[in-house]
């Protein structure tokens, strides 16, 4: 006959709980939500399950014996989901909550309104359907969707794609957020969305090239050693800018749609989205999932994007003399005064255009020698200097000392 603690352990397991070994110690993991918890969560869970006021800590050894213990985590669309021996596969598929709606007319109307160009609609729909049908086959090209504000592109991501992909998605407002030191998004997400990001700096743009095309990426989780993992992440970029990205002449990493515009006006679009939202709650999501799973991918090539008229226009616009002049200057000089930037980048004719270029390309300004270990360095400029926002002030000071003042960048010898 099982004990009460054993029955509690079975209940926790049925609810998706297990123990997982982490660098900070053993934690409770819920495989349905991917949330980890301290073991003291057992006290309120036990109270709710048993109706008793307290959980006996002496019962922990029995829970350890009865419940799964995870020592390895993977994200693999083709492996069995859930727990297999000491490994948990965190990849999840869509779990329907209602019978699928039979009428898809609202969904098809949404697609026609968002992408009235037939080529755009076919490219977007096949790219999205591929995620559901072949999640393990990551494309090497990704979507860029410029639009007016309030046209429903955010609704597509947050209200349709994210729930259909079991929320294995990530949302960022800049490219630099993805390349931060301890970011693990590429290890367990199917889509990363860049929502109206500023132009990528040259360093981030170079990092994105390999991230978007290579099947394996390096990650460095907090408190863990760096490692290489298989990535299944696709990328979408939403932008209200007519020039959302700079592209090279031989670009093969993007499909850019024509600009999304309101069918009539913003109020009419909002009313349509509200109707679509109600339909999603009544079997619409389930219907869209079935539609994606049945979509014909016969002519879809995950490794070569179809021709994009908007991408060709971006290629022409990206080859601007002032942009090349500013890029050439910033490639050679990481930290500089605004006056020098204006002097060397004369094609940016106004102070406003020069400032906008710097900000949109990831630069910030500050009096970096005012405080910190280098504040007393002789001949160091006391006014504001521009430097990459991804670089901290100490690193910017060190670069200036070593490359401009020709001094040793260590705090001790820069006095």
User: What are the secondary-structure elements, in order, as H or E?
Assistant: HEEEHHEEEEHHEHEEHEEEEHHHHHEEH
Reading side by side through the largest sheet, how are the strands ordered?
9-10-13-8-14
Number of helices: 13
Give the terminus-to-terminus CA distance: 76 Å
Rounded to an integer in angstroms, the radius of gyration calculated over CA atoms is: 26 Å
Q: What is the general shape? A: globular
Portion of residues in beta strands equals 15-25%
Q: Tell me roughly what share of residues is in helical segments.
A: 25-40%
Q: What is the CATH architecture assignment of the largest domain?
A: 3-Layer(aba) Sandwich
Count of domains: 3
Unreliable spans are 411-415
Q: How many β-strand runs? A: 16
The CATH topology label of the largest domain is Rossmann fold
Overall pLDDT score = 90
What's the CATH first level of the largest domain?
Answer: Alpha Beta
How would you characterize the largest beta sheet?
5 strands, parallel
Helix/strand-derived category reads: alpha/beta
């Amino acid at each position: 006959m099982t004990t009460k603690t054993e029955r509690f352990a079975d209940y926790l397991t049925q609810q998706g709980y297990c123990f997982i070994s982490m660098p900070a110690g053993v934690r409770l993991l819920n495989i349905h939500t991917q949330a980890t918890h301290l073991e003291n969560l057992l006290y309120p869970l036990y109270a709710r399950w048993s109706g008793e006021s307290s959980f006996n800590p002496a019962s922990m050894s029995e829970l350890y014996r009865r419940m799964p213990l995870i020592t390895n985590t993977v994200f693999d669309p083709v492996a069995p989901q859930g727990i297999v021996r000491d490994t948990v596969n965190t990849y999840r598929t869509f779990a329907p909550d209602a019978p699928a709606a039979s009428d898809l007319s609202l969904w098809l109307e949404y697609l026609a309104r968002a992408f009235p160009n037939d080529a755009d609609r076919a490219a977007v729909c096949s790219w999205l359907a591929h995620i559901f049908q072949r999640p393990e086959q990551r494309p090497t090209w990704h979507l860029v969707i410029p639009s007016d504000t309030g046209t429903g592109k955010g609704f597509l991501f947050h209200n349709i794609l994210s729930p259909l992909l079991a929320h294995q998605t990530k949302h960022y407002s800049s490219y630099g957020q993805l390349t931060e030191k301890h970011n693990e998004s590429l290890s367990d997400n199917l889509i990363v969305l860049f929502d109206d990001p500023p132009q990528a700096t040259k360093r981030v743009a170079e990092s994105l090239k390999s991230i978007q095309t290579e099947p394996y990426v390096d990650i460095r989780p907090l408190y863990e050693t760096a490692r290489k993992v298989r990535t299944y992440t696709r990328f979408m970029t939403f932008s209200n800018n007519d020039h959302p990205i700079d592209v090279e002449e031989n670009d093969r990493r993007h499909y850019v749609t024509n600009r999304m515009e309101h069918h009539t006006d913003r109020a009419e679009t909002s009313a349509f989205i509200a109707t679509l939202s109600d339909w999603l709650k009544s079997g619409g999501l389930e219907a869209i999932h079935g539609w994606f799973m049945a979509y014909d991918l016969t002519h879809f090539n995950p490794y070569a994007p179809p021709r994009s008229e908007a991408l060709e226009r971006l290629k022409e616009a990206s080859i601007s003399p002032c942009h090349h002049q500013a890029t050439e200057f910033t490639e050679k000089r990481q930290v500089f005064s605004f006056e020098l930037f204006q002097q060397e980048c004369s094609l940016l004719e106004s102070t406003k255009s020069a400032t906008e270029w710097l900000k949109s390309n990831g630069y910030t300004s500050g009096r970096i020698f005012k405080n910190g270990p280098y504040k007393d360095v002789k001949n160091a400029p006391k006014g504001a200097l521009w430097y990459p926002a991804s670089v901290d002030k100490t690193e910017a000071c060190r670069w200036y000392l070593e490359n401009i003042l020709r001094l040793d960048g260590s705090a001790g010898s820069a006095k």
